[in-house]
């Protein structure tokens, strides 16, 4: 494990350690509105603080883009800092963090929420080189380094188009707050698929796709932030899957909380073609 | 715990014991088409056999309505059979069984599937007096006896309308294979709710509602069978919730695999009114 991946791993571990001590009541206390526009819950703040603590310990010169705090300096102590200097740490790097993806689940007590963290060498989603997503309930960790495949707890994972029967596909779709126009575009897929899923943490659901448990994951609402998906996008691609925008281009975006994205992630090309033809026919 | 509840508990325990030994590959082997019309997977058959084994041990005179086998005799050994005779066991009772609710999740390795079993004194859903649903991953058991409240692992559970902010509601909706017309009726709720969920086991999702983790659960597809929901309906009602049909009548149906239902389950009356007004405006 290289020093960057070691940092991402330690971030996830520290977030899990800190938030697992919180009661549901404490986790759900509303604080101020975060940089991303949503009300920050106490669990978000505790998670973010835990992540930033690790970033400071690694003494990297990157900025951190976080759902709660926005784009902030890492709080680097000074030059000569440890292992991370072995990497491409010239100060243009960005750590893209959603300390708690699936806050509502966490606060409700639904055991499906995650910590998502990615390392990018510049200011675009396409420059992400390292990624980690941890299931904060089980402690399972999904991770990838660009060009080196995707892993879960040390074992290689791959996307799988598991069914030759369209009705048998298991497709995750984020429909929370979807506009009526955009819902209409999903109507054929919903009608033709016997197994629709929505668990409530985009990052973790995308990892289920990377692991071969879902065939596709779709979010065309135009609402999702790069902080939610930066890590999982690389994990899917390194697992053999595809993540595209609504125009079938490889998904890319500036690493900014202002960007609101739509995307389709798919186990393989044939699955992607099926989804696009379904959307086109709706 | 009375003898009927003891039997339902033992059914869940035996199903969990038997299916937990199966690999995903074995679980997913396709067998013949079941009485309910779906292809029976090996995990369904192993689960059903495990349940029927317990029913025979309890030596009750009920029939069993099961998703795979249809309506069958319990295989009673003879008169004089044990504890269950202390109950209303005059031969008109029906045990309503879905040994594996969420088969696709089980076969994929998604840890959200359950065993659902109910005891009815006659041939209508409204005659269910005892109910149990077990989360087959965690072993958590939800249960209720009519008039005596609902429980999870020995602790009383209650529905909770957790939010005074409509956007903050967490609403489960089953959208798998939904027709375009019926999807249109859901469009306002989807647009107004920031937290839509679909985990893939109706029975277990309804128990999340009973436990206060969801505010409502909606399935208006007209596809669900009584075997999937007989137990969870009683658990919700005993937890203080409401389960109605599309005309706002308390949900009832014959205990038959021919019945295909739509229903709306809600934490309380104000939540139900909100959902109905949303559907009416779509």
From TrEMBL, chains A, B:
Known cofactor(s): Mg(2+)
Presence of keyword Magnesium: yes
Biological processes, Gene Ontology terms: inositol metabolic process; signal transduction
InterPro entries to which the protein is assigned, alphabetical: Inositol_monophosphatase-like
Membrane spanning stretches: none
Molecular function per GO: inositol monophosphate 1-phosphatase activity; metal ion binding
Claim: Ribonucleoprotein is one of the keywords in the record: no
EC number: 3.1.3.25
Enzyme class: hydrolase
Record PANTHER family: INOSITOL MONOPHOSPHATASE, INOSITOL-1-MONOPHOSPHATASE-RELATED
Protein name stated in the entry: Inositol-1-monophosphatase
Species: Candidatus Nitrosocaldus cavascurensis
